[in-house]
Amino acid sequence: MRKAKLQKLGNEANAQVRIDYSRYDVEEGVSTLADALIIPLYVARSLIVPVLLPIVVAIVVAILFQMSVVGAIFYVLLAWVSAIPLAVLVGLILLLRRIGEDVTTLFHVALDTTLLAYEDAQKLRDQAKEAGRKASLYQVFQGVTYFVILPTVHKVLARKLPLFGWLLAHIIDRVFSSLLKIRQKDFEAIENEIGEEDTPEEAMGKVNSRIGKLKESSGNTIKVAMRVLSYPLFVACVFIGSITALLELLWLSLFR
Q: I need a surface site. Which of 22, 161, 168, 176 has the fewest CB within 10 A?
């Protein structure tokens, strides 16, 4: 997402809550996570095998069919170029699977920051005796996502991974957009458990307990979000894979 869009979404979420999210700095944690993403070179590892595999397969086919040197060279080049779109799609699917655990960790950071911001908002509300204004836990999570987590992710990845940072940032944006929809009812259910007779300490105890359970189940939630993101890629793989197979047969018939 662009910075202006993040700002707009954050302002909408913060219209009633009115929290100063600049107080919550998660750059160090996100930077550490970015290092974990970069050190294994997720993008390279996810793309290099799918991109190089068609070359290996084409060379093996050329040898098996005993093509001439010139014919084999043309066949390998055409077969490889034809397979690149499919290879990139497969690489993106592998990339989504690889970063799932790291996105789960980032989600935990978002939940921890949400707890801090929510507790601070309740304290300020109690001190000001503003009975009419209540910080919604879901709105706080939205604010943390749009004002703290995603802007920091964009900033850190742009600095640490200039070439592919935008791709990882876009994937994380999409995952968090899915999480905001998937988990909305969970946040609302947490607040419904808080009774009017509960003291601030008892209320925060319930919130802490339920947030802990959200963390435990977050792995499955991330998997669902990843499947949602991967589905269009799978459909595209089937379509492009069929075209690629026909092209491979065409090149084989021409050069065998």
A: 22
